[in-house]
Design brief:
399 residues; alpha/beta; Rossmann fold; Heat Shock Protein 90; five-stranded mixed sheet; 11 helices; 16% strand; elongated
Length: 399
């Protein structure tokens, strides 16, 4: 059968590739589309070879196919489209198509079907098919953009972590030399030079020691997520932490209690680090009374909700988010030692394992730090937290 329109389609025309062996039926379909408001360019084919030849030439917006043809079935056109990797809507037009057959065709990938005695519905079916095609294209584009951004973010995170690790590691050796020689200067020449010289040497020694401490903290932050996870007995991790913090607990007169703690999915050493940082902060930021620290846990759906409460100096509510940002300090070093990185490490560990961490802040009335950890291995998509603040701080450090 010759095409009903041999001319090249004009801009704005609907390009239709029509699989049909009956000239009259082809004309009725074209008339129904024009009556429905379409300006159309239609090419009619009967055989598979014709169909394959016209696909790249006509580049149809939609394929309309008769279900039954002498040489092949209209649904076979769908196989050709898939083989060519083309996402073109296919609408079946048939004189009689039972409900079961129609449903089976839709399941196989046909967009819609219209009976030949109901061609008035064809323009609406085409509009709906084109709209679905546009939405599918937008969704695919959005998914591709999201996948690309996730990949870029993962690469950026990996680069920044590698930079922090390499920079911190490479800085250690020259810093050791600076610290060693400034200490040697202090030991040999303290009191032999003027008062300002002693003061300057003291500043240099203190700065070198502080830089070494900062580098160690950066290394600890960069290592989070490098080790594997498994089931962790939090009771055992807590006992390990209490032994490590024993001298600080004894010196401060702190009382640390904890209920029976659960098993969670995490890395053992990093889980212990979370407990150690939170309990260590509770001891460090204490008030006039000896610290009283309590660690509790309760089931919350698929997670365990932990709380670490204390009777310390508390945190002003406006700083409840900032304290988890790398290098954020609320107090001068002369008041409380540290580099402002401990809570950032806690946040990174918790979020890398699919949990969340926050503080219920109240100035002068102690603090309650809460965090969640999964009972079992979480899905992969939950194993990455919001690290934008960490990334920003590391980028600032890098520049």
């Amino acid at each position: 059968m010759d095409p009903t329109n041999d001319l090249a389609p004009q801009p704005g025309q609907l390009r239709v590739l029509h699989v049909e062996d009956n000239q009259l039926d082809a004309e009725l379909v074209a008339r129904a589309l024009r009556k429905g408001g379409f300006s159309v360019s239609i090419v009619v084919v009967q055989a598979e070879a014709e169909f394959e030849r016209q696909l790249p030439l006509h580049r149809p917006d939609v394929v309309i196919a008769d279900y039954n043809l002498p040489q092949w079935r209209g649904m076979d056109a769908l196989d050709v489209l898939r083989r060519e990797g083309l996402e073109i809507p296919l609408i079946l037009v048939s004189g009689a198509l039972g409900d079961i057959t129609a449903v089976e065709c839709i399941k196989r990938g046909a967009t819609d079907y219209v009976l030949k005695d109901g061609l008035a519905r064809l323009p609406e079916a085409v509009r709906r098919a084109l709209q679905e095609k546009r939405l599918l294209r937008l969704r695919q584009q959005a998914e591709e953009d999201l996948a690309r951004k996730v990949e870029e973010l993962a690469r950026s995170n990996a680069d920044l972590e590698q930079f922090a690790y390499v920079a911190s590691h490479d800085l250690q050796e020259p810093l050791r030399m600076v610290a060693a020689y400034t200490q040697l200067l202090a030991e040999r020449y303290r009191g032999k030079l003027d008062e300002n010289a002693d003061k300057f040497i003291g500043y240099a020694s203190e700065g070198a020691v502080r830089m070494q401490s900062l580098i160690q903290d950066l290394l600890a932050l960069s290592r989070v997520g490098r080790n594997g996870s498994g089931r962790v007995d939090c009771n055992a991790a807590m006992e390990e932490v209490l032994m490590t913090l024993g001298p600080a607990i004894q010196e401060s007169g702190a009382v640390v209690t904890h209920a029976a703690l659960p098993e969670v999915w995490a890395n053992r050493s990093q889980m212990a680090q979370v407990f150690q940082n939170l309990i260590g902060n509770a001891i460090k930021f204490r008030g006039k009374e000896p610290p009283v620290i309590s660690v509790q846990a309760e089931k919350a759906g698929q997670h365990w909700l932990f709380s670490v409460s204390d009777n310390g100096i508390g945190i002003a509510p406006e700083y409840a988010e900032n304290i988890f940002v790398v290098f954020q300090r609320l107090h001068a070093r002369t008041e409380y030692p540290g580099n402002g990185i401990g809570l950032a490490i806690c946040k990174k560990i918790v979020e890398r394992n699919g949990g969340k961490i926050w503080v219920e802040a109240q100035t002068g009335h102690g603090s309650v730090f809460k965090f969640t950890m999964p009972c079992d291995r979480p899905p992969e998509k939950e194993l990455c937290g919001d690290e934008n603040k960490d990334i920003k701080s590391l980028q600032e450090l890098r520049t």
